[in-house]
Amino acid sequence: MPRVLLTLFLTFAGAVAAAPLIVHPFQANDAALGAVLADRVAHGLGPDVIGPAASPALVVPLVAPEGFINPIVLIDDPALAGRNGAWLLRGVSGAEAALSGTLRAEGDDLVLRLWLDRREGQRSGVVRGTREDPGALADRAAVLVGRWLQRPVEVQGPLDMAGSDGALGRAVGLVAAGLPSDALAALEQAAEEAPLPPRAAALATLLRDAIEGRDGPGEGSDLDRLATYAVALLNIGDLVAAGEAFDLLGVAGSPVGYAWAGTIAHNQGETATAQAAFDRAVAQPGYDAGPALRAAYRQATDAADLAGADRDALLADEGASAAGLLLGAVTANLADDPVQEDALLARLERAAPFLTYAFERRSFLAFDRDDALGAAQALAVALELDDESDLYWTNYGWALYLLGFLERSEAASLRALALDPSQFIARYNLGLVEVVSDRLDDALATYREALRYDPRVEPEAVVDLVEAERRFPEALGVPYALAILEEARGERSAAADAFERYAAAATANPDHPAALPARVREATERAAALRAPLPPIAISGAASLQLGRRGPTLDTPRPGDPLVVRFEVTTEGDALPRLLLLRAELEADDGTVVASAEREVDVPAGAIGFVVEVARLELPQDLPAGRYGLVVRAEGEGLQAEAAQAVEVAGEAEPVRRLVGRDVSLLALETEQVLFGPRDLPQPNVVVAMLLRELRGAAPIAEEVLPVVEDGRFEGLSGGEVFDGSSEDDVLDFLRYLLAEGAADTAFTFVDGYAEWVLQGAP
Known about the structure:
- The chain is an alpha+beta fold.
- The protein has four domains: 21-168 and 175-238, no CATH class; 353-531, Serine Threonine Protein Phosphatase 5, Tetratricopeptide repeat, CATH 1.25.40.10; 537-652, Immunoglobulin-like; 657-759, no CATH class.
- The chain contains 29 helices and 17 strands.
- The longest helix is centred in the C-terminal third of the chain and has 22 residues, at 684-705.
């Protein structure tokens, strides 16, 4: 069977401009150095270049029915650093050229590899420099790219990474990462030590205008400033202003500005504005990503016929870029149109032969239409591009099995398991080859190992054995292996049938390698046991109560406590059911259920006693003190067990205690250590005082990075004033807010969460 892995991350990640050239931040261990080198190259190539502060947002997301799809997740390098990143950046942005690069250190040298993508094709090259003079490396890179583009280059000289250039690199990297406020703070801190050079000062002014709501660069500004300003507005969440800025970017000649404006309008429910913006994007000459972006929007807004027409236009465009074809294929996938998707992917394979996604998706489409040869051919290419993919080796093994190449199938499955021993689909495929090859002992060992990682049993593994029993009637061990899987997933009747088929076939063919007398007896006995009435299950001993997963065991819980209920389920038979449905309820004297929780649990094969848990049984905050009944139940395969015990509830609900019970960890700003835990439960007032100290310590930072609060109890106060002036009641209200919002099983920095609560008006 193939292992399916098509992940489309739904995100709201952005896009911007088209220009003769876009320069992306160079990927490097030192992110500031990579960003400032890219900025130097962009600046050296002339004024009509969009630099690295804006370029990461240049890949516009596709509108999807339940969010947005960032096409970056579909290429091999999510940092857009390689050849695939260059063509994706150029095609989706609509630029004439895009430059990406990777920077690495080799001893005392720096090595920068560059990829430049243009409509005419792609160029790549390597430049070298020393750690002591990265400015010279930037100048060499600019000269090389200038030669490729046949344009003059401005040489800019040394870089001061310990001073203003380092600050500029950090700021560019922060803007590129979607953190314009942090970028401005970094520049302002550097300005306190020395005057900023013009390029850094201009960036600081631009960011300040965006953050403080001032008018930014207007019509006639260069594309880099327009793009950076629009991206900053987007990332601070001012979508109205961002939409206007992106629209202005489109007017300035950057078609992706229109696409972004349409995406934002759709997000805000402005259908007419969105449609008009996407129409303007499609109307821009040479912007072949436009039809795909509009197709995604139309598909998500119930205009499937029009979306199909946009994809047809892409297929008819012989000069369509790889990016346009990729986006079109994704929209066809969303539209569940495999024929159109396959046609677009076939074009994409030729346009972007180094992209594994196209070959991976074509293999899945081939499997869907029962074309094992087509799947194998696509996967063979995918493996040439990425021979470390356990997914590709697993699916290649399955395709080879379907084609009858059993030895090669086995080798492929073994390769997948060498890459990832937990790859249970590959183990199922391997077991299948072994059992149809009359190696029943090997197959049973392989299947049992697969069940370690997949105790619920992959349904397709059962389907494959059923089909193998029909396809390989001479392989007597197949029904025995099938019986093992059927029994493991609790299908007792089907397992008994399969054991009996094996016993009958083995008895009729005593000379067959799989027809061992001992195994025939075992199969007959297992069939009889499976057809016999099941022994009852029982709950042994009293249930225990624990405050969350990290808290103490409780004899007397409080109102509001989130409890983990543990108890043991046993049987006098051979084994417990493999799947148990568990339920815990707290009942009042009149039988009213005041709290309940349930879960399913996988039981290890052959277990006759197993400790299970139900989490989270959360008691109501206003539960009156008193005596209650705790009822726990377990059921599976038609069997049921129940037990009851008395529980005393006393005391009052307490926020710190409840957060511990929900496994919520608040972290210190500087050390990222957990601020409180189970050991602090006896003194919640000490915890609150400690949280106040954490706020006081972070007040100087809050003063720098937080805006003045506009709503709520802290209205009109700066960040530092809020952190300095918060009271114990404020902190407790914040903790109660977390609980009311359903916070559970999470960890985050306390002062960050508190700041967000404050800026929301401290609800």
